[in-house]
Amino acid sequence: MARPDRGRSASAAGRFARTILLAALAGGGAHLPLLHADDALSAPACPVRVPASGASAGELSARIYACFGSAAAGLRFRDETLDRLTVLARLATTKSSGERRALFQSLEPVWRSIDGDGDETSPWRALNRLHITQLQSRDGSLAARAAALGVDPAQVEPWLVAVLQAWRDALADQDLEPWDFYFHTGAMERALAGHLPLESLRPLNDRVYRELGADPSQLGIEYDIAPRAGKDPVAFTDFVTRQRQLPDGTWAPGHYRVSATYATGGAGNLAELLHETGHAIHIAAIRASPGLSDWPDSDIFTEALADLVALDVYDPAWQQRYLGDSVPAADALRAKYAVIVMDVAWALFELRMQADPERDPNAVWTGIMQQYLRIRPHPEWSWWAMRGQLVSGPGGMLNYALGAILIADLRARTRELFGQQPWGDTTWYARVAERLFRFGLERPSRRVIEDYLGRPVTPEALRAELRAR
Ligand SMILES: [Zn+2]
Fold first, then answer.
1. Ligand 1 centroid to 279 CA: how many Å?
2. Interval between CA 299 and ligand 1 midpoint (Å)
3. Could you tell me which residues are beta bridge partners of residue 251?
4. CA distances to 280, 287, 341 from 302, in Å
């Protein structure tokens, strides 16, 4: 079974854009129809008019999503037609603030596709009310997802606020316009681009893992990363054949495939490729009995494992070793966490709108942006309304937020156990595999995590890292 990825690519805008794309493509899960060209033509008038009498959450979600998809694919910017990903990527590289503002405002049709006129007739507000009913009648997916990681659901909102507050505390004394935020956090990607041409990605990826004792070629990992017409645009990794235990107790290796599409280099794409290989070295190390030799029971945990090595890209010492150059730590941390902090902000936005669906979403979003990210208020725009996740399923943004907390905790513990700068230590993989990768479905994720950490997950590692700026 293919496992569409959540999109851990790295540059501020690149990651951000990719996250949106992946949310759009993967976020809704199996129930969400992907948008085909014909759907756009036959889609109901956009934005969706509400109340759509008797529509279920699933139907309304699919209709809004169709509008979102077609708006995002055909944005007008001067004499160009751009997609949303291109607009967001350009925000991080366009030098003129005035030009960035114009680019940002070209996203307005996307915002309208989700929030309509931003008033009581907003399609998203209607959907939010339906989602709340669904959550209440279904035992709350947040509780289930949090419990799988050993997190008390009541702690989730205070944790989100604590993470955002740590970001705020570390910010320079400067307010930013939303369109400048992406440029401001894109400094690392811009500075390192020259060291990371397209052809460097594979060799670097292989070297990084080889030097940790996880040589991709020896582990049976295959790569399909060149652009090709009709290829799945979402990066993913999966089993081709599974490893199996032989009668004498030894293991016959399996084969694993990384599928991605890179037309350019850059730190964002490198981090994504390292993330996919992170999935591959994880599943290659599973040593469970036949029916249980599979991905773990928590997707959030699975995604965190894939980033154990990949997030080293944001470490200036790592950059020096592998790229021969580095950016200041503050730029690296900004690049690493800008996207995560936005994800946390969206998760908090969703929680607050679920708690009180009568509030004006623009006011809720503006408040969060101003208080924690120092982004100037623009309550006249529904600029929160550009994530497919907000439409495709209630609480989806929380996966990213909880994921960020878990990744930081696991990475801090890994460095504590196996070295602050383990690069070049070829015993690293076997030792980590033994404690973290080997279990498959044989052991609940929560138990693996708590055994490894020696305690339940907390947001302290993430907060400490943000404060270190
Ligand atoms: Zn992944």
1. 7
2. 9
3. 245
4. 11, 16, 20
